[in-house]
Amino acid sequence: MKENLSKILPYFIGTSLLITLLSLHFGWLNMFFFGAEHANVQGIDYFAVPKSFLNLLENRSVFDTWGGTAYGPYSTWYLAHPAFSVFVASWFSFFSPWTSYWVFCIFSICIMGYCAYLISKTTNNTFNKKIAFFFLICAFPTYWMLYVGNMHAPLVLALTLIMVGLVELTYGNNDKQATNKLFLGLLISFFTKPIVLLMLPLLLIMKETRKTTIKSLLIYGVVSFAFISIPMLNPQGIGWNKIINVASDFDFIKENLNIYKNNFVLNEYMKDNSIHWLNLIAQSDYKLIHIDVFSLPVFIDVIVGHATASWIYKIPIYLSLFLSIFIGFIGDKKIRLESTLLLLMGISLTFFLSYNTVWEYQFTSVLPLLALLPILKEKGVFYKKYIPFMVGIGVLFCLPSFYFLIHNGDVTSKFALTVTHFSRIIPVLILFVIIIFQIFLVLKKNVSFERFKNKSTNYFGLIDREK
Questions:
Q1: What is the 3-state secondary structure (H, E, C) of 10-71?
Q2: In angstroms, rounded to a whole number, what is the distance separating the alpha carbons of residues 39 and 257?
Q3: Torsion on CA atoms 298, 250, 311, 193, rounded to nearest 10
Q4: Distance between CA atoms of 143 and 149, rounded to whole angstroms?
Q5: Which of 200, 179, 458 minimizes the C-alpha distance to 329?
Q6: Do residues 382 and 338 lie in contact, with contact meaning Cβ atoms separated by under 8 Å?
Q7: Which parts of 257-381 fold into alpha helices (H)?
Q8: Backbone region of residue 8 per phi and psi (left: phi > 0; alpha: psi in -120 to 50; beta: other values)
Q9: 308-312 — which CB contacts under 8 Å span 24+ positions?
Q10: Is residue 329 part of a domain?
Q11: What do you get for the CA distance between the two ends of the chain, in Å?
Q12: Residue 297 lies in a domain
């Protein structure tokens, strides 16, 4: 069966890619997405990207999306790292808006294909090589990412590089090549969307990844400092005093720097480059109940009919960080690195479970995980018997959401919201539970409390002696 599928898959992938490109023009797949059917949103996330660099050329903040001359018919707010505006957005800023959009779509497809290529290089199994391309290119979230023009593909590449780097550290014989991938993956995420921040404690704890992580953090820190302190790079900066005062006042940030509460009006704080980091706090407790928002907090609020406590949804984050502490105490290197990769996968899923505002295109970041699982099964990871079920659940990410079942009805009803979000939220939750359960089991089997106690005693004893 796999041999037959291996022969068919290249044709299926090629046909799917052709349909994707044609549908971006003709709208054949519009019935599967609310935004395509009931709003005018094609390219809406993209136009702010080249506009950010054009702003900088006009001595205006990269975040002043709606200031100056308009670029494109509409846009959402630019929120990537200001360095992305210079190093990447600049390449696309000199095309006309719609030409630029199409060039960026091709660029994003190439990135997704490269992610599949990187994953395919970790195996000699022909079927697993080809299925990686299927998962990355043929998934409906990939189509929606291209449709709205979001710059999410670089983050998918970052996650792919990090995961492939860990696979090569575990099973390869070229640690330098593996750590280079990890290093590049961390930097790409830092300078696009810093979703890997929650991975840092685990990567710093692991001796195999600590040096690479510290090096990437130093570069990130130096570049970020430059983009806040140099006026030419931060032309509408508010100054370090205001940044420090605001950064320590979470209530002020949530009330005054939230784009939705401000009705899309930008104040001086939202034009300073520091907003790239402060926005994570600004939207941390805000829930947008909408059919296009696919997060666990919104999903649960719709079901129960009222707002639930925000701390509940931070549990996956706290649990992941707690487990990170103990993985470094696994003695067997192979098991330790396998556990590290598995927990990193789990940490990447906490975004959908803990963050309030999740859009459907963001599920493309699950696709590298899905493509790697069959390869990890052939390598004999300790959780290999669960992988067929995990892949089976994960295939739901490649299929359209259930929106098409209710697209002609009331899309604001509890039923419509629940049905639409179900096939995205529930698979993420199941995958996360399986991952955490397996981490618990491997820690129970491989971590000695006595060894942990002795290491802790030696560590704190060293501090006491130094004092």
A1: HHHHHHHHHHHHHHHHHCCCHHHCHHHHHCCCCCCCCCHHHHHHHHHHCCCCCCCCCCCCCC
A2: 26
A3: 60
A4: 10
A5: 458
A6: yes
A7: 275-282, 296-304, 315-327, 333-354, 367-378
A8: alpha
A9: 310/284, 310/285, 310/356
A10: yes
A11: 66
A12: yes
- For 266-299, b/e burial (b = at least 16 CB within 10 A) is beebbbbbbbbbbbebbbbeebeeebbbbbbbbb
Number of domains the chain is built from: 1
**Residue-level pLDDT at 467:** 42
pLDDT at 277: 92
- Residue 427 and residue 422: Cα distance in Å, rounded? 8
State how far the Cα of 102 lies from the Cα of 109, in Å rounded to an integer. 11
In this structure, what token pair is assigned to residue 377?
A: 């099964």
Q: 3-class SS at 76?
A: coil
In a domain, 464, yes or no: no
CA-wise closest residue to 72 among 94, 97, 95? 97
CA separation (Å) from 454 to 274, 450, 460? Answer: 42, 6, 10
* Nearby residues of 84 by Cβ (< 8 Å), 6 or more positions away: 151, 154, 191, 192
Closest C-alpha to 5, from 130, 124, 123: 130
CA-wise closest residue to 337 among 262, 442, 221, 445: 442
Q: Does 467 fall in a domain?
A: no
Among the listed residues 283, 432, 440, the one whose alpha carbon sits nearest the alpha carbon of residue 349:
432
- Is the torsion defined by CA of 148, 149, 154, 156 positive or negative? positive
Q: Which residues contact 347 (CB under 8 A, 6 or more apart)?
A: 198, 199, 202, 320
CA distance 138 to 371: 12
Give the range of the structural domain holding residue 332, as residue numbers without chain letter.
2-459
Residue in 365, 447, 331, 360 with CA at minimum distance from that of residue 158:
365
What is the pTM assigned to this prediction?
A: 0.93
Per-residue pLDDT of the chain (467 residues; tens, 9 = 90+): 777 888 899 999 999 999 999 999 999 999 999 999 988 899 999 999 999 999 999 999 999 999 989 999 999 999 999 999 999 999 999 999 999 999 999 999 999 999 999 999 999 999 999 999 999 999 999 999 999 999 999 999 999 999 999 999 999 888 899 999 999 999 999 999 888 899 999 999 999 999 999 999 999 999 999 999 999 999 999 999 999 999 889 899 999 999 988 889 999 999 999 999 999 888 888 888 999 999 999 999 999 999 999 899 999 999 999 999 999 899 899 999 999 999 999 999 999 999 999 999 999 999 999 999 999 999 999 999 999 999 999 999 999 999 999 988 899 999 999 999 999 999 999 999 999 999 999 999 988 656 555 655 554 455 444 44
The one-character DSSP state at 86 is I
Neighbours of 409 (CB within 10 A): 11
